[in-house]
Amino acid sequence: MTILFLLATMFIANIGFGVILPTLPFLSRHIGASTVEMGLALSVFAVAQLLSSTLWGAVSDSVGRRPVLITGIVGYGVSSALLGFAPNVAVLLVLRFLAGLFAAAVMPSSLALASDWTAPHDRARILGYMGSMNGIGFVFGPPIGSFLSLIGLQVPFFCVGLLAILNGLLAFRLLPREQRPAAVVSDRSRRPDLSLLGGFWPGAKRGRMRIAPFLVGSFVFSLADASITATLAYYLIGRLHSDEIMAGWAFMVNGCMGALAQGMMFSNVYRRFGEAVTILLGFSFGVLGYLTLGFAQWLAWAFAAIALLALCRGFAYPAMTTAISIRTPRESQGSSFGAQSACNSLGRVIGPLLAGWLFAQQEQSPYFVSSGLMLATIGLYLLWAQRTRKQTIGDSRADSVHDTL
């Protein structure tokens, strides 16, 4: 029951993001925002998530996942509902920052709760399902937002806020109270590390290198994915002479295939081939996908590239999330997932700016750069795996000598 509710929570949260994104520019223009201020309204949300994700994760390790999750859902709902009634640009930006601040609490606490309530051998499947809910929410959100905006510009924001608040109330009623980990209960002096770097490096100074490669991989994935979000529509319309409808279909194909890959394919591949192969396979799909998109001459070619990128999303990201969860003690799960969310937010902040600048230089360059970054990440991961394997062999030999003595 808890896992099903968490899946529904992830779905509702991401539908809310999808509903608001296509409607926000029209609301910004309605209250007199310039194009720069409109861009700020979009980016300030990611900035707030970047600044607060690690802090929410650390707090969830200290006071519990349930109160942090409920606070995040309800706070996001209230700020989103008020957003539709913003009288000027300043209030709009403040509310968007608050919405991002509270939304940052949802992902780390949800993933940590799912990890607490699942066995390690079943964790990849559950986290894959949760990732698929993200994709499905983003697919259905924009058309729902467009439909609701026909009734009124404020309606999508009010509906998202009301839905999130109801979800928070249901979480308060249905989510069971947590059994705190023994390591936390026994340490009554434990306090969350509210420094940005302290939350970013979870595990109380130990185990950092065990998850560092997956944090770097999450950042690279989000940075590359942001190049698609920022430039794909312009690329299809300009270079491939398509139209807005086909651009919308491209995003829908990417979201649907990514959700299907995470929900139906990921756990089988992970269970059969293991963590390392799944991550390398996902990033390999990304390298090929971005290269194919950069060299695309026809629309069908571009859609094939988008399908490859969806497979990258479906394999690489949930495998890294599972790897972080398995390598982190239960009492630090929130901090680890908060660090991963911060890496994602950093990629979403830098990615659109970098992709826009590269696109202005040459239309294909964002995709070639993204392909190169993913290829470099594969190389770094292989080097790290080799070093870890040698260290493990050395430790086992040392233990054997100790036992012999």
Automatic annotation (TrEMBL):
PROSITE patterns: MFS
Domain of life the protein comes from: Bacteria
GO function terms (MF aspect): transmembrane transporter activity
Record domain Major facilitator superfamily (MFS) profile: where: 2-389
Pfam families attached to this UniProt entry: MFS_1 (PF07690)
Sequence intervals crossing the membrane: 34-56, 68-87, 93-114, 126-145, 151-172, 214-237, 249-266, 273-292, 298-316, 337-360, 366-384
Subcellular location: Cell membrane
Membrane topology of the entry: Multi-pass membrane protein
A cellular-component GO term for this protein: plasma membrane
Main location group: membrane
Keywords associated with the record: Cell membrane, Membrane, Transmembrane, Transmembrane helix, Transport
Keyword set includes Cell membrane: yes
Protein name as it appears in the record: MFS transporter
Lineage start: Bacteria, Bacillati, Bacillota, Bacilli, Bacillales
